[in-house]
Amino acid sequence: MINKGCAVVTGASRGIGASIAKILAKSGYSVVLNYSRSEKSVGEVLKTITANGGDGCIFKCDVSSRDEIDSMISFAVKSYGKIDVLVNNAGISQQKLFTDITQNDWNNMISVNLSGVFNCCQSVLPDMIRRKSGKIINISSVWGVYGASCEVHYSAVKAGVIGLTKALAKEVAPSGITVNAVAPGCILTDMLTNELDEDTISSLAVDTPLGRLGTPEDVAKAVLFLASDGADFITGQILGVDGGFC
Fold first, then answer.
1. Which of helix, strand or coil describes residue 171?
2. Can 154 be counted among the known catalytic residues?
3. What is the DSSP letter of 98?
4. Which of 74, 191, 192, 208 lies at a CB distance of 3.0 to 4.6 Å from 243, suitable for a disulfide?
């Protein structure tokens, strides 16, 4: 297998992040799997990667902490020489009436889902700019495009990720760096099943024109494309992976 370089994937312990890490490793990237709490789960992801002949390692850090992110980026560069792809996937979700959202809820949502993306991008960019090469792929959400009732704070930060993606893409394009986002629709993950009952999940599948919920693998394939040479002339774009939901 030809080594394509190093990819850092945040929130790689399960769901969409785990699938992204696996598909990038399978395609030839050495993957740094970031996690915050799920040590056992991320270990299983790495075990799968290595069993299939891939290369990877694990780094624990909280994406909302700039010092911890700087340590992870430094570790990745020292381990693999450079970072070719950064996938900002780590995130949290919460369903609440807008009037019930606490200041702590709001701050946590911003810290992880938006400041986490800011931290990772700002930490990785100096080396990418120096090399005039690199790809940044942010995971937003269809709700960041259209908004979701009872998820105002989640929708707001995911919209922020889209704004960050479009603006940063213009700023770093002269350095040969692309910045894009993937906006998943209703994806069958623990994040979805832990918050919604079976009837609601079934109705979401019915409301999706393709007649099913998406899978983490569907999102991972979109990320793989944006990381590939085939996407070299694509930047500042938001790729919806939603089965035609919106």
1. helix
2. yes
3. G
4. 208
Coil, helix or strand at residue 41: helix
* pLDDT tens figures, 180-228: 999 999 898 877 777 777 877 788 888 888 999 999 999 999 999 999 9
Spatial separation of the C-alpha atoms in residues 7 and 16, rounded to whole Å: 15
Q: What single-letter amino acid sits at 139?
A: I
Res 246 pLDDT > 70 = no
Lookup: tokens for 103? 């200041």
203 phi-psi bin (left φ>0, alpha ψ -120 to 50, beta other): alpha
- How many angstroms separate the Cα of 10 from the Cα of each of 13, 125, 173, 202, 203? 9, 16, 23, 29, 30
Q: E-assigned strands of 79-150?
A: 85-88, 134-139
* DSSP conformational letter for 228: S
Nearest alpha carbon to residue 169 among 136, 211, 122: 136
CB contact set of 29 (below 8 Å; sequence gap of 6+): 3, 4, 5, 6, 7, 84, 85, 227
Residues 12, 18 contacting (CB under 8 angstroms): yes
pLDDT digits (tens, 9 = 90+) for 107-160: 999 999 999 999 999 999 999 999 999 999 999 999 999 999 999 999 999 999
pTM for this prediction: 0.95
Distance in angstroms (rounded) separating the CA atoms of residues 44 and 42? 5
Catalytic one of 29, 35, 80, 154: 154
What's the one-letter identity of residue 170? K
